[in-house]
Design a protein that fits this description.
heterodimer, A: 4 helices, B: about 110 residues
Chain lengths: ~100, ~110
């Protein structure tokens, strides 16, 4: 049964490597943020699998719970920032939009 | 290997399948909004199925009180992800819509 868990963890690690491609070469910033969020969701499962392999689930489950909450809060904070900024381009696009609206 | 282990393994493999589809959608979809749609659905379902499978497998060690509490805690993490992950995806998609990211149109030339 431990071999099965190690196998599942290896497949999830490979999927994380594939997600990292989108995190590095994402066209926009928001693509990178959502890619990091996907990686965090896979990391929760990997942490629990490590707990089952080491027979210490009661310790690793708290770590994974904290990881889930931090992942959620990080994505919400980033989306609130970009929602109020109304631009993903760094620099003067926001000022130009303000001048047009006035 | 008892019946609970086999049910847990089936659930974990189902969750792995949905993780795989979410990753393929994240890589292959042509547009920002399409990527949000695949990741928001596939990732949530994969995580919830994997957590249900792990909690069923955990009950295989006996029905003592710490084991049952551990399974309930695993299901609580699954419930939290089931609520929080679509909320985060919806919020960041709305932020992208406010930032006026162009949606993908079939007739146009592919930009990136």
């Amino acid at each position: 049964m431990i071999n099965f868990f190690i196998f599942i963890g290896m497949i999830l690690g490979f999927l994380i490597m594939v997600c990292l491609y989108r995190a590095i070469t994402g066209p926009t910033v928001l693509d990178r943020i959502i890619s990091v969020s996907v990686i965090g969701t896979k990391t929760i499962i990997i942490l629990l699998l490590i707990g089952f392999i080491y027979q210490r689930v009661d310790m690793f489950i708290d770590i994974s719970m904290g990881y889930a909450i931090l992942n959620f809060i990080g994505t919400i904070v980033a989306s609130k920032f970009f929602y109020s900024r109304k631009s993903i381009v760094p620099g003067s696009k926001q000022l130009a939009d303000k001048e047009v609206s006035q | 290997m008892s019946i609970l282990s086999i049910i847990g393994i089936i659930f974990i493999i189902g969750g792995l399948f949905f993780f795989f589809t979410a990753t393929v959608g994240l890589i292959r979809m042509p547009d920002y909004y399409c990527r949000m749609q695949t990741t928001g659905k596939g990732d949530t379902l994969g995580a919830v199925l994997s957590l249900i499978g792990l909690s069923i497998y955990n009950l295989d060690g006996g029905l003592s009180l710490p084991n049952v509490l551990l399974s309930i805690k695993l299901l609580f993490i699954g419930f939290f992800i089931f609520v929080a992950n679509p909320t985060a995806t919806h919020a960041i998609t709305k932020a992208g819509f406010e930032c006026s990211i162009d949606p993908w149109v079939k007739r146009k030339e592919v930009k990136e």
